[in-house]
Inverse folding.
């Protein structure tokens, strides 16, 4: 009950500020928070990245292993994306099996990575029908202050572009010996999230905004600016015009995000 | 090219199943098909066969989930093990969890949940047979089931996908087009206002293609909407006769 009343008061506050042209953290409506992306920050992972987006902090690890291909794709590597919302990162995260928010996060990040075809999975076949590389992307938020979609996708692609193949011997992976060979990656998809609060549309919602948003739209773009993934969230709605406008202006923001990826 | 991929998706203006690019698969909606549910609907949409049932408003369990300001809407999308070519393991998986979530959010935008505080409204969607586009068929059925249960709503929610196959923008992909096509864009709308309450996309579209597909999907939703209304009218006529 109390939580609910507080939420209403918060929403009122955030919305009134927006009516006056201001955001809770003083940003412009079309402005990202400060972004930093570091890669190669974990020595045990074949690829890794640490993304900070304002006060949101996400670690992404890429691990490689070998295994059977899918029967319908016998000469293709396998991509698996997983997210874990550990209670360390927020009082609202709980222990236990993944809930629908966790699953949605993993699937929406996966969508941009997979549909852009950025990983050259066809080059990850070791023996057709028998043995292929399996790429595990693990999304690991450490401090949750809103907009995990953009932060995790950015972290995932940054980590993938800095992933080195481990040594393979007699079909077994020697994780202690890393080769100079990089995971073949040919595109740089990123995701851009806008949210709608009342009648306002703002980029990169921080936690306070995310808690009160009516609707959210995440759009994934490849390097060419083509749309590769979309996901609407929240119990509110968008007009057709709002969606078309978000998809158009998000493209520029995608390019901006991409500039933060090292290497 | 993937194994089994057709060389052409459109020949002489016709798709592999004989439809034109802007044509829906045959759609049949029936309301009030289940005895025990408070409201229900059955949808046959091409090769999709979907049942939806609505229970509520009712007492909520577990009680700590109760909301003092509104009813809690819970949606469950589930696929029968025999609904697909390769048997699906029973129970929720990651895909059905995501679909349940976006379905709930789409329906929350129209249901007057504030009228029933401290209660639950449950909607169960069961995919009995699948031929691509099951989430749209599920939402379409679910909103008819809600209306059939007499739950106050500001509108029905029709859903329909558009996509891209073999370079063409087409309406309502069926399984071959979904498997080998280049993009899929499921959309659900609130027809009276034109608001969009569900929007997902995977694949690859340019801005122009996206706008074209989006427009086409909305047109598809409007056709679905007519069928939803017909189904409800029919069940009320039948009930008034009885």
């Amino acid at each position: 009950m109390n939580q609910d009343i507080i939420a209403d008061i918060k929403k009122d506050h955030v919305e009134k500020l927006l009516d006056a042209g201001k955001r809770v953290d003083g940003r412009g409506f079309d402005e990202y928070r400060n972004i930093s992306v570091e890669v190669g920050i974990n020595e045990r992972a074949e690829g890794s990245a640490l993304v900070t987006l304002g006060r949101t902090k996400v670690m992404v690890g890429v691990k490689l292993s070998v295994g059977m291909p899918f029967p319908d794709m016998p000469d293709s590597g396998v991509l698996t994306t997983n997210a874990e919302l550990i209670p360390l990162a927020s009082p609202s995260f709980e222990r236990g099996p993944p809930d629908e928010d966790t699953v949605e996060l993993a699937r929406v990040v996966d969508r941009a990575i997979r549909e852009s075809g950025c990983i050259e999975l066809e080059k990850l076949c070791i023996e057709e029908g028998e043995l292929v590389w399996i790429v595990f992307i693990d999304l690991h938020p450490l401090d949750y202050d809103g907009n995990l979609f953009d932060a995790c996708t950015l972290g995932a692609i940054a980590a993938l572009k800095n992933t080195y193949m481990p040594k393979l011997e007699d079909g077994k992976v020697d994780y202690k010996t890393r080769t100079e060979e990089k995971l073949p990656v040919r595109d740089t998809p990123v995701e851009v999230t806008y949210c709608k609060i009342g009648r306002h549309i703002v980029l990169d919602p921080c936690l306070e905004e995310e808690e009160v948003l009516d609707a959210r739209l995440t759009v994934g773009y490849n390097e060419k600016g083509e749309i590769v993934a979309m996901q609407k969230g929240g119990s509110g709605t968008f007009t057709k015009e709002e969606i078309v406008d978000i998809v158009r202006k998000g493209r520029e923001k995608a390019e901006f995000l991409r500039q933060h990826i090292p290497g | 090219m993937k194994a089994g991929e057709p060389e052409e998706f459109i020949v002489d203006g016709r798709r592999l199943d004989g439809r034109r690019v802007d044509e829906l698969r045959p759609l049949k909606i029936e309301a009030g098909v289940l005895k025990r549910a408070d409201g229900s609907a059955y949808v046959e949409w091409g090769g999709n066969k979907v049942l939806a049932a609505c229970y509520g408003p009712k007492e909520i369990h577990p009680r700590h989930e109760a909301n003092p300001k509104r009813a809690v809407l819970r949606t469950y999308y589930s696929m029968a093990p025999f609904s697909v070519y390769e048997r699906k393991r029973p129970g929720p998986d990651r895909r059905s969890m995501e679909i349940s979530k976006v379905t709930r959010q789409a329906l929350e935008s129209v249901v007057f949940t504030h009228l029933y505080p401290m209660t639950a409204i449950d909607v169960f969607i069961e995919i009995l047979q699948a031929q691509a586009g099951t989430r749209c068929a599920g939402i379409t059925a679910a909103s008819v089931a809600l209306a059939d249960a007499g739950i106050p709503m500001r509108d029905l929610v029709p859903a329909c996908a558009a996509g891209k196959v073999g370079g063409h923008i087409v309406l309502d992909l069926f399984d071959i087009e979904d498997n080998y096509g280049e993009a899929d864009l499921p959309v659900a709308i609130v027809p009276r206002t034109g608001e969009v309450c569900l929007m997902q996309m995977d694949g690859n579209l340019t801005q122009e293609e996206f706008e074209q597909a989006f427009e086409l999907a909305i047109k598809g939703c409007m056709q679905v909407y007519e069928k939803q209304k017909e189904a409800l009218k029919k069940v009320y006529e039948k009930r008034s006769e009885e």
